[in-house]
Specification:
alpha+beta, 15% strand, two-stranded antiparallel ribbon
Length: 240
């Protein structure tokens, strides 16, 4: 009988030790791993490494969601049929006479990271507002009745949005700007206001403006893009 009690006692001690070791292992997750779950990018990552096709694909999906989020604006300003509008690919060079997508990137110029805190402060100074889909939007004439954003700005890396709760721990190689034309205001005016915001952000943040091919955007390229917008608005107005 005493031997049986000793066996039970030993088994009980073994079970207690196993429970203790498992509990200790679960609670010993390093702080660095916890930070990685909160932050959308890994600290120390190079901007060029983060700026890849998957990020552009994520931005395309985000831009499409923004269009579907404001269907009244898309229906009011587009001339194509609903089926054709839905089938169009977003963020590509396949612009048409009735719709155009402009996508630009503000990338940290030294290949380092931008902190969430400095991004938030700079975007507010540039007139951007945090809103739908957890990204930032620019509204022309904030006191008017225009409800749709002129253009939007997202995180360069997947999933594209900003979490204000953990923004102090967020690090990113850059920002993505996208604008669908026609929009709530004239296309030329929208493009000019987008350039004004970009100019302010270039003064507030250590960033360089790049296109989807990772090329630095020069003033000459911006002038060419504006000419394309002028031509788009002229052609679009003829279709009305």
């Amino acid at each position: 009988m005493d031997a049986f009690r000793w066996v039970l006692l030993i088994i009980g001690i073994i079970i207690f030790l196993l429970i203790y070791l498992l509990s200790k292992k679960r609670n010993s997750v390093p702080d660095e791993q916890a930070d990685e779950k909160i932050s959308p990018v890994l600290p120390g990552a190079n901007a060029e490494q983060m700026f890849d096709d998957s990020d552009r694909a994520s931005l395309d999906a985000l831009a499409e969601s923004m269009r579907l989020h404001h269907p009244q604006e898309s229906d009011r300003t587009s001339t194509g049929s609903p089926d054709k509008q839905h089938d169009k690919k977003v963020g590509t060079a396949e612009d048409s006479d009735d719709e155009k997508m402009i996508v630009l990137y503000l990338v940290e110029k030294h290949g380092d990271m931008l902190s969430g805190a400095e991004i938030i402060d700079s975007l507010k100074q540039a007139g951007m507002r945090y809103g739908d889909m957890k990204i930032f939007h620019y509204y022309s004439d904030l006191d008017s009745n225009i409800s749709a954003p002129v253009f939007s700005m997202a995180n360069l890396v997947d999933p594209g949005w900003f979490d204000l709760i953990s923004i102090d721990k967020t690090m990113t190689p850059g920002l993505s700007l996208f604008m669908r034309l026609p929009g709530p205001i004239g296309s030329i005016r929208a493009f000019d206001e987008m350039l004004e915001v970009i100019d302010k952000l270039e003064q507030l943040l250590p960033v360089t403006l790049k296109d989807k091919s990772r090329n630095k955007v020069s003033k000459q390229m911006l002038m060419h893009m504006r000419e394309e917008v002028v031509e788009f608005e002229r052609t679009h107005n003829k279709l009305q």
